[in-house]
Amino acid sequence: MPLLLEDFARARIVPVVRTSTRATAEFAIECLVEAGFPIIEMTLTTPEADAIIERFAREPGVVIGAGTVLSGEQAHRMAYCGAEFLVSPALRPRVADVARDMKLPFFLGAATPSEVLEAHEMGSTGVKLFPAAQLGGPAFLKAVRSIYPNISLMPTGGISADNAKSYLDAGAFCVGMGGKLVDEKALAARDKAAVQAAARQALDAVA
């Protein structure tokens, strides 16, 4: 069954995994899934991201999508690797075309009200508001929601356990959380307890 917007809304937080090695990315995903995150975004800036997506797409209990998708070719490749959704940091018409053809949920990135509307008109399942913190945080999101109450917004960038609920309260249907959740030092040290403690803290903050 294809993913629905409601699945992301129930998840509340989508971890964005961006690491310098395949090994740390795989360890991060294992820890996050075990901690209780149902949906994971694996960014294509991570080495061997396609192989990582292909591996976890075959594992039960893991919903994995591709992030930082910039071209139609990448979108096709990630779909064939098993990605269940696509995320781009920008307005990428070819990514939208492929996602629609493959019947995959997709989230185009936007940084202005005009871009939010354009992403929505391209059929974006929800719009990734990026970089959220630098754009003005929950106050900016709330202002955008006031003029586009029917457009679903997923803020990403600078979101932590301390402020995630503020974005949700401002109207986000879910948030993307990267470096504030997935600490590469802890991952490199294989400190599973530290990684999962941070994960559970984030889940508790938005429960």
- End-to-end gap: 26 Å
C-alpha geometry: globular
What is the CATH class designation?
A: Alpha Beta
- The neighbouring-strand order within the major sheet is 3-2-1-8
Overall number of strands: 8
Specify the helix fraction band.
Answer: 40-55%
Q: What is the name of the CATH architecture?
A: Alpha-Beta Barrel
Round the mean pLDDT to the nearest integer and report it. Answer: 95
Number of domains: 1
Query: How much β-strand is present in the residues?
Result: 15-25%
Number of helices: 11
Task: Give structural notes.
The two termini are 26 Å apart. The chain has one domain: TIM Barrel (Alpha-Beta Barrel). The strands form 2 sheets. A 4-stranded parallel β-sheet has the order 3-2-1-8. It has a 4-stranded parallel β-sheet with strand order 4-5-6-7. The chain is of the alpha/beta class and 207 residues long. 48% of the residues lie in helices and 15% in strands. It has helices at 5-11, 22-35, 49-57, 72-81, 93-102, 113-121, 132-135, 137-147, 164-169, 184-188, 192-206, and strands at residues 13-17, 39-43, 63-67, 86-87, 106-110, 126-129, 153-155, 175-177. The radius of gyration is 16 Å and the shape is globular.
What characteristics describe this protein?
TIM Barrel; four-stranded parallel beta sheet; 8 strands; alpha/beta; 207 residues
